[in-house]
Amino acid sequence: MATILVLNGPNLNLLGQREPHIYGSDSLDDINRRLSAQCSDLGLGFEHVQSNSEADLINRLQLARTDGTSFMLVNFGGFTHTSIAIRDAILASETPFIEVHLSNLFKRESFRHHSYFSDIAEGCVIGLGAQGYELALQAAAKKLTN
Question: Does the annotation count 113 as an active-site position?
């Protein structure tokens, strides 16, 4: 069975509480419940990890290389704009991924306009709120069946 790994970075554990005018009112648990159900309907395995620690995210990416992870959906939050180390770990994982962001980074501060991951991603879903994860999962499932 193909498995989807969803990785979320710093502060995403505060979704639904933190700046709902930017990030929406859905909690990360709400998003993960919907993704889990969607994976079940598609016959896919589902795993999710959220960490405020760059090291934890890197360690999980390294595991993806050998643990049967088929595809990843990633939202590294603030690390998107700063972490070459996570970029290197994604490349080392040799696992395809879609980058997801709840807000439209290009309507925000200029330092958020650069991502260390977009150029190596299969695709990017930006600015569509929590629905972006579900759309990314649909795209990942389609890529896995082709």
Answer: no
